[in-house]
Amino acid sequence: MTALAAERLAYRQSRARRSTAIALLSTVVFAAVLLIATTSSPGWPRVRDSFLNWRVGWESLPAILDGLWLNLRVLVVCQILILIIGLGLAAVRTLRGPVWFPLRALATGYVDLFRGLPLIICLYLVGFGLPGLRLAGIPNNPVLLGGLALVLVYSAYVAEVFRAGIQSVHPSQLSAASSLGLNYRQTMRLVVLPQAARRVTPALLNDFVALQKDCGLISVLGAVDAVRAAQIQVATSYNFTPYVVAGLLFVALAVPSARLADWATRRAATRQGAL
Predict the structure, then answer these.
(1) Is residue 239 part of a domain?
(2) How many angstroms from the chain centroid is the CA of residue 125?
(3) What is the per-residue pLDDT across 13-55, written as a single tens digit (0 to 9) for each?
(4) Would the pTM of this model clear 0.85, i.e. be above it?
(5) Please, are residues 56 and 237 in contact by the beta-carbon 8 Å criterion?
(6) Which residue range is the domain that position 118 belongs to?
(7) Domain containing 95 — which CATH number?
(8) Which of its termini does the chain have fewer beta carbons within 10 Å around, N or C?
(9) In a domain, 64, yes or no
(10) Residues ≥6 apart with Cβ < 8 Å to 37
């Protein structure tokens, strides 16, 4: 390494250390100002006792963890179903030719309906409407009905993510696959879908982070998940700390998923720039 290169490296390292020190100092100052402003407010003692009672939080933790385990199981099953249904809808919407128009129209109507329908309304319609039909085979389990509503809504979003990935593949690759003798199914399986899956991974991860939070909404149907367990603890202790505990647990689950989504986004951008 030449003297000039060593000097440049030392300069970059000093700038990096200076930037890190400034960022750390500004963060500490901001946190200190926020803490002082909060704790010096007139209503802080009452808020602390109502929302940050560590004894109540610790006593409610086992019940909330049991409910969170239900949320995790619902999340895993819904993710698998959403991926399958979303990919199927995207494939149908990209079919070409007039013979496939009825299927394309149905898929488009499905996506438009459930993307525009608020999730909470879908939960009410599915959770209370389907059992009200009194048809044979329709379950009354709020967990199953809540999971069905989540799958219906999020499949519409994931379908559009997959469709964008499929349409991002250049038409020349489809022509090349056709010239090699591949039919439409083989082209989608071997050429289009592998590329589309890599390109839409960051967007899919972001959708699943949102799904992770929305799994807590199944409590409106009576399922005893983390949110409902916290509500039961609040009703027995007359203290809101269990809600804070449940919220912190959801955040603890969301942070690794969010960082994974950020990493996938950076990796996709790096690979795109290298091409």
Answers:
(1) yes
(2) 22
(3) 888 888 888 888 888 999 899 888 888 888 888 888 888 888 9
(4) no
(5) yes
(6) 51-274
(7) 1.10.3720.10
(8) C
(9) yes
(10) none
